[in-house]
Amino acid sequence: MSVEVIRARRLGDVPHGFFGRRGGVSDGMVAGLNAGLGSADDPAAVAENRRLATDAVLPGAALLGVYQIHSAEAVVVTAPYAEAARPRADALVTDRPGLLLGILTADCAPVLFADRDAGVVGAAHAGWKGALGGVTDATLAAMETRGARRERIVAAIGPCIARASYEVDDGFLRTFAEADAANERFFADGRADHHQFDLEAYVAHRLAAAGVTRIEALGLDTYSDEERFYSFRRATHRGEADYGRQISVIGVG
To answer: Residue 217 phi/psi, 5° resolution?
Structure first.
């Protein structure tokens, strides 16, 4: 099966793609296009899956990632580096052709950014902790150091866990409400002492509050669509020993 590339309409012809698990060479519980370096998958299969994703978007490009730590750290990259040299961060920015920025997710929100006029792109891994901490704000600021202007920046939020699938407790809600009381609007009532959190809507809110006016949320739920996406929470609920990671990529055309 060929790999499925999910594209954002607002990003237009900027080389980019959100991938799930369709296609690829991995098998077993991570069958498909598993791009997770931290999984127990065969490293050769992961490398081939990452090559397939790269070739589907920007053939011949150097795929660069970060050692993701659920932070609000964004780095500017200007040249290829070895996997062992990946910076500890959760977002990357570049203005250099031939580089493809990659973010891994398995329920967290991947966010791709582009300022076509400036030739600057970014990719962010926005889990709840990074989103609350400001990883998208840090990405925008890093893009501006390379000449981007946020009024021109387009942002797309890819497949992530949806509100209907994301149950959290009172303590989780309090963490967001203490940061800003208005954040309670991103939580719907659930069972006793629990709530349903809308990560995608919260990330879109942070982007809009930072001055991004062109935002596309794809509305794809990683948890509920097992055939199409990997999900850490689904694997955890089932007591599975491992889980795959999907990759989202963007580069300068």
So the answer is: -110, 120
Superfamily of domain 5-162+198-251: CNF1/YfiH-like putative cysteine hydrolases (3.60.140.10)
Pairing between β-strand 109-115 and β-strand 62-64 as defined by DSSP bridges: unpaired
Three-state SS at 119: coil
Model confidence at 30: pLDDT above 80? yes
**Are 157 and 203 within 8 A, CB to CB?**
yes
User: Which single residue is written with the structure tokens 């006016």?
Assistant: 213
Sheet holding 187-189, edge to edge: 167-169, 194-197, 187-189
First to last CA, the chain: 26
Span 196-224, pLDDT tens digits: 999 999 999 999 999 999 999 999 999 99
List Cα–Cα distances, 135 to 26, 117, 167, in angstroms: 31, 23, 22
Tell me the C-alpha to C-alpha distance, in Å, between residue 111 and each of 92, 93, 102, 162: 11, 12, 10, 15
Compute the distance between CA of residue 246 and CA of residue 230 in angstroms, rounded to an integer: 7
In three-state secondary structure terms, 233 is helix
Under 8 Å between Cβ of 128 and 101: no
* This prediction's pTM: 0.97
- The CA distance from 219 to 180, in Å, is 24
Q: CA nearest 147: which of 112, 113, 120, 116?
A: 120
Give the phi and the psi of residue 231 in degrees, each rounded to 5: -150, 120
